[in-house]
Write a structure and sequence with these properties.
- This protein is α+β, with helices and mostly antiparallel strands and about 100 residues long.
- The chain has a single domain, classed as Alpha-Beta Plaits (2-Layer Sandwich), CATH 3.30.70.100.
- The protein has three helices and four strands, in the order E-H-E-E-H-H-E.
- It has helices at about 15-30, 60-70, 70-80, and strands at about 1-10, 35-45, 50-55, 85-90.
- Strand 2 and strand 3 (about 50-55) form a beta hairpin.
- Helix 1 (about 15-30) runs antiparallel to helix 3.
- The radius of gyration is 13 Å and the shape is globular.
Length: about 100
């Protein structure tokens, strides 16, 4: 399994809109992509403009397919100017309960 983590800092005026958009993106990814197994969206209570994503795909090719999907491209275009900082990391899952 291929794991992707994303740490995002959103420009404060766009926090609520971003959070709504990214939650919808998570639902779209899980509903439309058979190789997307998990898409968690988390935020901090004390810093709502910080959002953390935890995603699991069957493999790296599935993640590349995610990035090429129309729903991801639409989401990315919508939120592009709302994001101040975005850090993406990838891993290979060693243990799965």
């Amino acid at each position: 399994m291929f794991v992707v983590t994303v740490l995002i800092e959103v420009h404060a005026p766009f926090t609520d809109a971003f959070r709504q958009a990214v939650v919808q993106q998570a639902h779209n990814s899980l509903d439309l992509e058979t190789d997307c197994h998990r898409f968690d969206v988390s935020s901090r209570d004390d810093e709502p403009e910080i959002v953390f994503l935890y995603e699991i795909y069957s493999d790296e090719a599935a993640f590349q397919g995610h990035l090429a999907s129309q729903h991801y491209r639409d989401f990315s275009a919508t939120v592009e100017d709302w994001v101040a900082v975005k850090e993406v990391n990838t891993f290979h899952l060693l243990v799965n309960d």
